[in-house]
């Protein structure tokens, strides 16, 4: 009886390794800050990735980045590098790692970590003492991250 329960628990734990989506705390980075495993287990949608990239209420990547080839981008920022051709220069795993937690690739960067929920100073706490309690949501969902990975990977020139 006890053995059966243990076997069941073990197989559940093994199954959990493939559960979707990968939780922010369970993301595995390579030494260089890349993330090999898809957060959702399915390929992202590049068209939606462009929306996440340019929408001020979603990724708002345009606050800092421009893509010259996408002239429909309004008010793109110049804080970060231009991302034309990023899919040529970086693997999907590298792009995913930069999105999940850019600090693992670029130490001390101003780019936000988009799939991280701990280790932050609660915004507002120092000023108002009214920072929200409990776990924060990541800035982007696993699906949104994979969509942006698909979109940036498609930028080949
Ligand atoms: C506050 C500014 C800021 C925002 C917002 C921002 N980034 Fe960045 N990003 C940077 C900076 C700066 C770098 C260069 C790394 C460094 O040296 O800090 C960078 C680097 C990158 C790189 C690596 C480019 C390369 O090949 O070297 C990618 C890819 C990237 N950002 C994608 C994104 C995406 C996608 C978003 C939105 C989800 C985003 N960034 C939002 C500032 C930003």
Protein described:
The protein has 157 residues and is mainly alpha-helical. It has one domain: Cytochrome c-like domain (Cytochrome Bc1 Complex, Chain D, domain 2, Orthogonal Bundle), CATH 1.10.760. The chain is built from 6 helices and no strands. The protein has helices spanning 2-16, 46-54, 86-89, 92-100, 125-128, 142-153. The protein starts with a helix and ends with a helix. The structure holds heme C (HEC). Heme C binds at residues 53, 59, 61, 63-65, 79-81, 83, 86, 89-90, 95, 98-99, 106, 109-112, 114, 148, 152. Residues 1-19 form the signal peptide. Residues 44-156 form the Cytochrome c domain.
CATH class group: Mainly Alpha
Question: What's the number of domains?
Answer: 1
> In CATH terms, what is the fold-level topology?
Cytochrome Bc1 Complex, Chain D, domain 2
Compute the separation of the termini in Å: 61 Å
Mean pLDDT: 88
**Structure classification:** mainly alpha
How many individual helices? Answer: 6
- CA-based gyration radius: 18 Å
Number of strands: 0
CATH superfamily: Cytochrome c-like domain
Shape: globular
| Strand content bin | under 5%
């Amino acid at each position: 009886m006890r053995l059966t329960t243990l076997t069941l628990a073990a197989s559940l734990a093994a199954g959990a390794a493939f559960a979707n989506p990968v939780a922010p705390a369970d993301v595995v980075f390579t030494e260089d800050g890349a993330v090999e495993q898809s957060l959702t287990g399915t390929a992202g949608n590049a068209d939606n990735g462009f929306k996440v990239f340019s929408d001020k209420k979603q990724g708002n990547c345009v606050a800092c980045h421009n893509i010259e080839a996408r002239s429909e981008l309004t008010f793109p920022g110049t804080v970060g590098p231009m991302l034309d051709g990023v899919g040529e220069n970086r693997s999907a795993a590298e792009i995913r790692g930069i999105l999940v937690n850019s600090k693992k690739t670029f130490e001390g960067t101003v780019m936000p970590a988009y799939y991280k929920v701990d280790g932050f100073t609660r915004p507002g706490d120092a000023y108002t003492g009214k920072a929200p309690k409990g776990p924060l949501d990541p800035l982007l969902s696993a699906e949104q991250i994979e969509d942006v990975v698909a979109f940036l990977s498609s930028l080949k020139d």
